Amino acid sequence: MKTDKIIKGVRRLLTPTIVATLYFLFKYGAKVSPRSEVEISKNLKFGKDCVVNSFAKIKASDGPLVIGDRAGIANFCFISTGEGGINIGDNFICGPNVNIVSRNYGYAQKDIHLEDMPKTSKGIKIGDNVWIGSGCTIADGTVLGNNTVVVANSFVNRRFKNDVIIQGNPAKIILNR
Questions:
Q1: Could you report the average pLDDT of every consecutive run of 10 residues in the chain (177 residues)?
Q2: What are the CB-based long-range contacts (under 8 Å, 24+) for 118-123?
């Protein structure tokens, strides 16, 4: 386990970003900025015509990350998978500074450091035609139905049906589309 972490760290440090940019361009036709940090991993799959902008960070070493066709990931976004994975549908866009993380720390025992607690990962599912506004956090276990709009600076941590606009901390439905 410790050896795996060392290998991941060395691979991240020694792989130039231009190599990742070219790899994703030739393998998937995805336009990944050389100023982003996208990990080359067997767990990561892009659809056609995806764009990852500068300073975005995508980590898929611990679980699957599948991104559908025509996804747009803005500057400074962070996407990281746990064992539960992340599945993002077609025509997905997200504004800058969006965090999508499918992992969570356990917190049941008070006398143990949080990093030593068992981690959980239920996974995240994001449907087709979803727009996530800037500054949002999508937490583990979230399901966003098709045609959902998440208003800027919202915290999403549960399931939402298709065709809704959600907002808040925690996010609630404010309109049906």
A1: 66 74 92 93 95 96 95 97 96 98 86 84 97 98 98 98 97 95
A2: 119/82, 120/82, 121/62, 121/63, 121/81, 121/82, 121/83, 121/84, 121/85, 122/84, 123/63, 123/82, 123/84, 123/85, 123/86, 123/87
